[in-house]
Amino acid sequence: MAPSYTTDTVKGHVFQAKKNVKCKISKGDRVPGGPADLTVDKGEIGEIREVSKDGNQFLVCLRDRREAPSVPIAINAVDVSPALFGKWTIDYQLPGFGGIRNASSDTMSDSPSGGVAKHIEALLVGVADNRDRIPDIVIYKRFLQNSKSIQDTANAMKNNINKASPQLAALLASNSFNIWNIWDRAPHFGSHEETIIDPTSYCGIYLIVYWDFKDNSEFSGVYIYIGQSKDMVVRLKYHRTDMFYLKSDAYWTEHYRCARKAKKWTAMRFCVQDPNEGGSLEEAQRLRNLYENLAMLLTRSYAKKVSDVTVAQSRAQAKGIAQAVTKSYSHLELGVLFNSIADAAFAKSGYADPKTRSSFGVTGGLNVSSPVGGEHATFDRIVWSLERIPKANRMIFHRPALTLAPEKAGAGGNTYRTLGYMKYRHFGESTSNAKAKMEFLRSAESDLPEPGDVIWSTWEVMDKDCVHATPAFPIGDVGCWSNWHDVLRLGYKIIWQSQKSSKFYYKYLQWAAPRTCLRAISDNKTGSVTSYAYGAGILAHLLKSTWPGREEQGFVPDFGPAHIVEVIYDAFRQTATCQPVTAPLEQLSGPIYSENAVLSQLGALRVTEHGVQKHLENINGDWQGLDWAWLEDHRQTYEQIYKQKKGQASSVKAFKVLIRQNNQRKNCDFCMYRFLSDEVEGAALSTTGLGACDRFKDDQGVEQDFCMPCFLRGIRCSWTRADWLGGDDWGIEKEGMLRHAASSRHFSGNFYKAAHKAFFRQPENVKGLATYEIPNPGFEIVDGKEDDTEE
Description:
The protein is an alpha+beta fold. The chain has four domains: 7-85, Roll (SH3 type barrels); 105-365, no CATH class; 384-512 and 540-580, no CATH class; 611-626 and 665-759, no CATH class. The protein is 28% helix and 21% strand. The protein is built from 23 helices and 29 strands. Strands 8, 14, 15, 16, 20, 21, 22, 23, 24 and 29 form a ten-stranded mixed beta sheet that branches. It has a five-stranded antiparallel beta sheet with strand order 6-5-4-1-7. The radius of gyration is 33 Å and the shape is globular.
């Protein structure tokens, strides 16, 4: 017997079909043109709207269908969840805290000479002991590698606090103090009474205290913020300007909302640093990152949303899961870790921890991001939200929402929009910061987002040996590297909401136009096509893996190890488990170079056309090994073609011109296409230009039987009759000229299509690359960066 339900008890709850159920939809509940009957599939879920008068049916809304707003379904055919539809419970699976070891006895003693340094040392020991959980901690190795270096760093910070105020340094070593004791002792350089009190330029760490809030404000009591700068006064001016500038990325952050609501505030120097401390500006910056993070812990200035998991979970419910994960997880992960380190460290050192004393007088902190580890050298603060879609043979990686920036100027006076980017380091670079970008650039088009539109972008990775229908890097079939075809597993999609129409759209994008997709990323590495290099690097990044042979290959960019959080949805229970991905999602193999594989692939290119089996000729054979005998065999055919196409009185003369042109041919098959095909548009191989079909010379200066462009492309020259390469119109010049050639031709035929796919790129999927309007996907637009650190 079915359970007894009432609308009051189940309205808004999730249901799930226990079996396939055929449902009859009343005329009044159908959308225009909608079906009268509809089958609800086993496992399908939705929201219960009401219970029928006889108590035997639910009137439901199906989550994944929009052809019927209300569907009646038998109560005994479904399971009812205790969860309300759309009210997700977020379970952040943060790694457990492993504790810290005892710090050295020298500075951990109760001796007054240790002062605040003993508390700082305890924190540094905790950071060093948890180095495997902090991204890019290796750049701080010099300051954390042993007890001596940790003590030196702790004493250096103590001395810098002393430079700001000896009274402040002594206060932080005392048994008890409050925020107003700090306020009395730290030198003020800005306040609500006079924005800049002391214009003197100091480098180091500053503290801002906010209090006396406006009526009906979300804030009350006292809030604090810790920051760093090479010039604290200049940084304060930026704070006071940006917090009132609506278009500022940080306008809606908690810090700036608080600052706007506070009637009173004071900025004070907490730690004064030599701008070249450590021997260089770069080392000083690293120390400043450490000092800022340590000051945040000494004052407990982390915001609750990144230090309290329960607060983070409630915020995620309000914001939307994907955005909560991509925008907040890394802050939460590091915030919880550093606060756990502080809990353990202060318990050992005996610090007067503000967290455990209400007498400290602070209601809350405003710091969100962690200077140490918060900006990984290569993944640009991005946290990827991973969702597995087994039915579609793919994994989907969501990144935080971006607001499309204004158009920027490009070559030739054109303007471009950046519809996505990935930062990377060039192969072999030792710099800690990623400077280069792989960008999806597009000129202004009607079916693209406009500047100011919010974009949600995703990378899709197909299962191994599956090719994406619209690959982001649609490289040609033939490649010299064993992982060449893996690049075709990647797809890139953007979803956006138009500011003009408020409608949502999605579109798959491919990187680079045909003319530039083959440009080499290196001028001395075979197979160093940029599309391949980017694709191989991004695939390894997303799979949190590495190519074992990457060092030998020597040109694939370093996108770094991705920071990934997998979201596992339970739609029936409306729970989302968010757990960090710590191991590779896939073990990659290669890349291994193989000239034999290239020759085999080129030799397999065979197409039967007009009863003739066409293939590439003289593959890796004699240089410029061309045969013209075929021209005489087809004299009549080509005379007729020229007569029809060009209307010349003397087709014999035209044929002689054709022979002369062919006899003068100096380009291999690949380069003939590059220079003459109107579809390829003069594809460039060299990093500096088009690249002529010049014979390649090895390190000893010995000429090889292949050209430089084919070397960079990772293939070998072939010398095939032009009518096979270009089809019927191979010799007919089009009006107008190519960008890089004196003439252009429209090649055609099945063999040309196969050769084009092998040499250059996958066929364009017109339908797959179109723009489609979609219903609201349920994404939340989260205003402002969850990041208050200085760039």
